[in-house]
Amino acid sequence: MHTISALIIFVMGIHMFSNGLALSGISLMQKTDKNMEMAVVENGIQYIRTEIDDGYYPAITVRKGIPVEWTIIVPEGKLNGCNGEILIPAYDIDVKLYEGENHISFIPHTVEIVPYSCWMGMIKSSIDVVN
Ligand SMILES: [Cu+2]
User: Fold this and answer.
1) CATH code (residue 76)
2) How remote is the CA of residue 4 from the centroid of ligand 1, in Å?
3) How far apart are CA 41 and CA 65, in angstroms?
4) CA dihedral over 83, 84, 89, 93, signed as positive or negative
5) Span from the CA of 52 to the centroid of ligand 1 (angstroms)
6) Could you read off the pLDDT of 104-124 as tens digits, one per residue?
């Protein structure tokens, strides 16, 4: 019994510590480029699938000038008040996320790095548009 309650308090502590860090602009989940997802072009459309996590959005790479069909997967239990809405100001996109598959479409017209984030700007990531 003691072990279980100690474990629960420990897990809650880690969670709150991580949230506190995120609030001060530090993320425990470092953005690593090994997680960079590359779109696959098929019949004139580039498809990309990514999975978000608690406090984490993956960076993606897309090609300029080809319509993007982006599927964002929210695993069960991973949706929260922070990661539940994605903003991509450069493309005028503001999408509420739901558990399961979410779809975002846009056409990148310029080679640039487009920042995207959660609605509060806490979780930051990017869309790398290449030739
Ligand atoms: Cu947030």
Assistant:
1) 2.60.40.420
2) 30
3) 12
4) positive
5) 12
6) 999 999 999 999 999 999 999
